[in-house]
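[audit] Reproducing an earlier prediction to check determinism. Same input, same settings, fresh worker. If the tokens differ from the archived copy the diff job will pick it up downstream; this log only records the rerun itself.
[audit] input (79 residues):
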Amino acid sequence: MTTGLIKSTNNGDVYCECVEKKVKQDSGKEIRSQIANLIKWIARLRVFHASLYGMQLTLAYWLMLIVMTYNVWLTAAVM
């Protein structure tokens, strides 16, 4: 059954033809926008992980230097 822009299908679903066209036109732009936002978010996350790794590496290096002094008191203080 068709009434203007509103249509119904054989299984009872009702939809508006003008809304369907708009969704089809905007879906490409929306998907591209979501992908761009996802890429930006992933880039920020990678920078955050890299900074955490750098901090971990620096702390491990300082711990190694403290232990290599063979000073029991400094090593016990850190551990």
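[audit] rerun output stored. Observation attached for the diff report: Residues 17-68 form the longest helix (52 residues).
[audit] end
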